Amino acid sequence: MDELKKVIEEYAKQLTQYRAEVEKTSKDGQNETAEVKAMHEKMEKSLEAVEERMEKLQASVNRPESAGEMKAKDEKESKVLHSAFIKTLSGRFSLDDEEKEAFSQHQKSMLLADETSLGFLAPTEFVAEVLRDVIEMSPIRSLATVRTITGKSIQQPKINDAETIYWLDEQALPTSEDFDSELLSFPAHVAGALRSVSQSGLEDIAYLEAELRASFARTFAKGEGTAFISGSGIKRPEGILENSDVSETTSSVTNQVSFDDLISLEASIKEPYLPNATWLMNRATKGRMRKIKDTNGQYIWSPSVAVKEAPTILGYPVVLCPDLANVATAAQPIIFGDIRAGYKIVDRVGMTVQVMLEKYAPLVGFLARKRLGGQVQLPEALGILTIK
After folding, report:
1. How many other C-beta atoms are found inside a 10 Å radius of the C-beta of residue 187?
2. Predicted structure pTM score
3. Strand, helix or coil for residue 23
4. What angle (nearest 5°) sits at the alpha carbon of residue 226, between those of residues 223 and 228?
5. How many domains does the chain have?
6. Angle (deg, nearest 10), helices 205-230 and 124-137
7. Which of 27, 200, 241, 294 has a Cα at 20 to 30 A from 302?
């Protein structure tokens, strides 16, 4: 666009000069001499050349970008904005011309949009990298349904009601009496992750970015993992164990888990949810499972035989979840069922990072805020084992 603007200005300048020369010759009432004619032809050729260049640039500007060009352009802008964001946080590095332009273009979105958080809105690339690390560390997030939202919450009808079959007359529709229209609300709660960095740490831009990203990811993963299992639902997600509609199976023996208990827990889940069912337990409980035998004297634990394949119990994969309790009286150490169908996580777009220079001096504090929520959406897809 800048090049086209310069060419247009040059064309206008040459055209003005050409017209002035033509008018001067006409005003003097003289015949066009060979010298004047040659000058006019030279000016015309120069005008034509500039005009041709201008037309090509205009055609280039008006040509729709291909998907590949748009993707490459977006990726470049994202990287530049990402770099400008980290440098701005550190306060130790000056922005180059490209980064200044990116920051200027996105200033309204990068500078704090929410007056309560007093920080910078992180660019998409940085948020995506943090979330990628969170997914690798958060077992429930990798199994549940995850939806990105733009508002503070979403609502949906109860899934089991929406899946009811209706037998109707020709051209008839279900009425409000045919189903319960109760809505489930999924609010996105505010979660914060704090990391302090030394003054020397600010001097290495690569270190700062890696440190902030890893620290934020660990904090969010650990905090949300606990909430998805046992969160109260007040200012945080609702945990699976806190939902009273999820069925419970009580063990047959005090302070122990038997083969029959696992069979009973499996039987508590309806058939449609079994193909995608998973066992959730912590490492200590997994150790107990390795020792349990079925009625034929065979161990029920089947170790994985391939890389990245989970071990199985009764044919269903086992996923370690450190936030579940050990086997003990009245504890709830095992969850079984279709986590994707039963539990929904909502992530609100955006993450802000606030720089705190004085509160943690001589260190510098960085507080990341994001909104997320989660709760049981289909209780019948999940089951809990409670120890007698």
Report:
1. 22
2. 0.72
3. helix
4. 105
5. 2
6. 50
7. 241
3-state class of 304 per DSSP? coil
- Could you count the other beta carbons within 10 Å of the beta carbon of residue 251? 23
Beta carbons within 10 angstroms of residue 328's beta carbon:
13
Is 283 part of any domain? yes
Radius of gyration of the chain (CA): 33
Tell me the one-letter amino acid at 9: E
Q: What is the pLDDT of residues 176-233, one digit of tens each?
A: 655 556 788 899 999 999 998 888 888 888 888 888 989 999 999 999 999 999 999 9
Q: Is 84 exposed, middle or buried (0-12, 13-18, 19+ CB in 10 A)?
A: buried
For residue 37, is it left (φ>0), alpha (ψ between -120 and 50) or beta?
alpha
Give the range of the structural domain holding residue 323, as residue numbers without chain letter.
Answer: 81-165+179-388
Residues 279 and 220 both lie in one domain? yes
Task: Based on the fold, state whether residues 235 and 365 are members of the same structural domain.
Answer: yes
Q: Packing angle between helix 97-105 and helix 67-90, nearest 10 degrees?
A: 100
Rounded to whole angstroms, the Cα distance separating 33 from 48 reads 22
Give the integer Cα–Cα distance in Å for 80 and 98: 7
Joined tokens for residue 93: 């590095």
